[in-house]
Amino acid sequence: MKDYVVEDKVAVKGSYTQDGVSYAYQVTNLPAPIPEPDKIVSASAEVKDSENNPVSGEAAAVSVGDGILRLTGKISSANKIVVNYQTKDAPDAKKIFTVMYEGEAFTATGDNLNGGVLTVGTAPNTTAYTVDLTGLEILPAQVKVTGGEAKPDIPEKIQNQITDTSYNEDKLKETKAEGLEAAAAEKVENSTQEEGKGEVVLENGTKVDEATAIEKLGELHDADDTVTLVVQPYLDIKVEDYQETDGQKFLKLDIEPKYNVIATTATGQEEIVVKPATGSVENPNAVLVAEGQSMTVKTDVTLEIPIPADLAKDANGSMTDNLYIEHLKSDGRTYRYKATVTGDDSSGYIATFTVPNGFSTFTALIDARKGILYFDELNSAKDYTFADVGTALPRPEDIPGKTFSGWKIGGTTYVNMTDELLKELSEEGTPVTAEAVFTTNGGGGGGGEEPEEWVNPFKDVKEKDWFYDAVKYTNQKKLFGGTAADKFSPEDTMTRGMLVTVLHRLEGEPAVDTVADFSDVKATEYYAKPVNWAAANKIVGGFDGKFNPEDPVTREEMAAILHRYAAYKAYDVSDTATLDSFRDGGKTSSWAVGDMKWAVGAGMIYGRENNTLAPGGTATRAEVAQIMMRFCEKFITE
C-alpha cells in the first residue's frame, strides 16, 4: 500500500491486477497547511538606568513558553528592564517593551501590550502572551550580581583527541550564559538585621550580610567605606568525552552553575581588586567570602558555548543546521534541544541553545535525520527531527466505546517518537501515514464493571511474569490500558501524566469545573482532565507553573501523590515506617520524607536490590500496576 499526495480534494481507495499480481492503492489528500500564527522566537532582557545606559550588577532574564512571557531577577527601584523580542514573521525587526517599578509594583508598558497581555502578529494569525512579572523583585541595597568567567577543564587525554587545535580551555572560557545572573539573584534576600540592606544565602543556608563582609575585609575596610556584596555566578565546565562513533563525532560536557560571594569597598564593578589567598596585588579592595557555591537553576538560561570545528560542519564542510544538544539529567530524564551554530575557522564556532531544565551532562552531536508523519485520524502532518525523540505523538479524542491506543506505523504501534522511528522516517524520505489504533473499553481505561473472565490482550505479558497478576487486576479494573492494542509495555517508564490518569480512572473519571494553572498542560491532551481534577483536589502540585506531564514520575513523587489521594479519600493514612533501614533512605527529598515513610509503612513501596529505596528513581508501568493493585486491595472494599 502506498500513499499518493494530490492537490485536489480527493480520497480514493481501490485495487487493480497487473501481470497476475493484485495491488491495492490509496490516494490521499494531505490538508493544505494552515497558516501558523506569528509567535515570539527569541527574547532578551537588559537592565538600564533612567537615561537608557546599561547597568551592571543588576540581573534580569526573560523566558517564553506556552503563552507566557516570564521575567525574573532583581533590579534597583530607580532602574528599568528593557525587553527585546523577535517574532517568527518578522525576525529582523527588534521590538521592545519596558518594565518599571512604580507605585510599589512592577508594570510593563509598550506597543501591543494591553492589560498585561502582549499580542504579536497580524490578525487573524496572532498569538497572545501573558506577561508574568511575579518573578521580579527589588535588589536590596549594597548587593550586586555580576557574572564571572567560566572555569573549564579539558583533561589532557581528551584534548589530544580533538583535532581542532584552537579548541582549548582558554576558548571555553568565552562561554556566555544569558539568564544565569538572574538565577543567581535568587540567592539575595532582604536583611533581617537592617532594613533596606541585603544578604546572600550560601549553599549550606548560612547568610552573609554587611557585618560579615566588614569582618572579612578586615584592614581593607575603613569606617567611612561603603561595603558591597557581589554575587558572581559562573559555569564550571568539564569536558568528559570527545570521540567519533560510527562516523559521528560528539562532545560531552558536564556543566555545573556555581557562584562566588565577594565583599568589596570598590564603588564600581570594574574597580574590584580581590586580595589573593597567597601572594599580593596592588591596592586590593575586596576579599572572597565564599567560593564555588553550588547553585540550582530553575529558569531558562541561553548558553553560547564554543565547540570544535568538526561539530560545526556537516559532511560537505558547510556550516551545519543539524546540531543538537542531548541533555541527560541525574534522575535519568533526557531532553533534546536544537542548537544554532555561528562563527568561522578564524574566530572559532559557537553553539547557542536554551536550557529550560537546569544543568547536568550535555552532549553536542550532529543529526541530520528528518521525517514527516501524516496522522490519518487528525488529518494533519508534522515534521520530526532528533529534538522530538522521546516526545509524545499527538493524541486524538477517544471514540464512544473505544480508547485510543497509539499510531500504527509500518506494522508497529507507537505513542512516542523513538530513535528507531525517526530513522525509518528519514530513510523513507516522503510523508509516512500513521494509522490511529483504538481498543474497545474491555481492554483498559475508563471505569466500569469488571468482566467475569479476563482475556489477556497483551503479547508482552505472560503468566510466568512477576507482574502478570498486577496487569490483569489493573486492566480488569480499567485503570490501565495498553500502549498498543496488543502491548502493555511493562518496562516502559511511567510518566506523571499517566499516573494521574490512572488515579482519575480509579475515582470514576469525575468532571471538574476548574482548569489547573499549568502552562504545559494543553486541553487537548489525554491527561488534561485528570490533571485538572488532581490539582483541584490538591493531589498534585507543579514546578514553577509547570506540571511536567511527560516526565517520568519518581518513586518519591509517586509516594506523595498516592499519599495525598488516600488522604483526600479519608482513608486511614496512619501507617508509617523508618527509612533508616535502607542504604539510601537518607537521600529522600525533605519534602517527601513523610510520604515515603507512609508508602513503606502501608506496604505500597518496597525496597529494591541491595536494600535500596531509590527515592529519586523512576518506576516502570509494571511496577506502578503492582503498586496500584496493593493500594486497591488495602483501601478499596468491593
Please describe what this structure looks like.
By secondary structure, the protein is of the alpha+beta class. It has four domains: 1-30, no CATH class; 40-137, no CATH class; 143-236 and 257-294, no CATH class; 391-635, no CATH class. Helix content is 16%, strand content 34%. It contains twelve helices and 32 strands. Helix 7 (468-476) crosses helix 12 (621-635) and helix 8 (496-506) crosses helix 9. It is globular. It starts with a strand and ends with a helix. Mean pLDDT is 86; it is low at 1-11 and 441-451.
Secondary structure tally, helices:
12
Helical/strand content category: alpha+beta
Point out poorly predicted stretches. Answer: 1-11, 441-451
How many discrete domains? Answer: 4
CA(first)-CA(last) distance: 50 Å
Cα Rg? 28 Å
Residue share in β-strands: 25-35%
Helix content: 10-25%
Task: Give the rounded overall mean pLDDT.
Answer: 86
Biggest sheet layout: 8 strands, mixed
Shape category: globular
Tell me the total number of β-strands: 32
Describe the protein's topology:
Elements: E1 3-5, E2 12-18, E3 21-28, E4 40-48, E5 59-65, E6 68-75, E7 80-87, E8 95-102, E9 105-109, E10 113-114, E11 117-122, E12 125-138, E13 143-145, E14 151-153, H1 156-159, H2 169-172, E15 176-178, H3 180-184, E16 188-190, E17 198-201, E18 207-208, H4 210-217, E19 228-245, E20 248-264, E21 286-294, E22 301-307, H5 309-312, E23 323-328, E24 334-338, E25 340-344, E26 348-355, E27 361-366, E28 371-375, E29 380-384, E30 402-409, E31 412-414, H6 419-428, E32 432-440, H7 468-476, H8 496-506, H9 528-536, H10 555-568, H11 593-601, H12 621-635
Parallel strand pairs: 1-3, 6-12, 13-19, 14-19, 28-32
Antiparallel strand pairs: 2-3, 4-7, 5-6, 7-8, 8-9, 10-11, 11-12, 15-22, 16-17, 17-18, 19-20, 20-21, 20-27, 22-26, 23-24, 23-27, 25-26, 28-29, 30-31, 30-32
Helix pairs in contact: 7-12, 8-9, 10-11
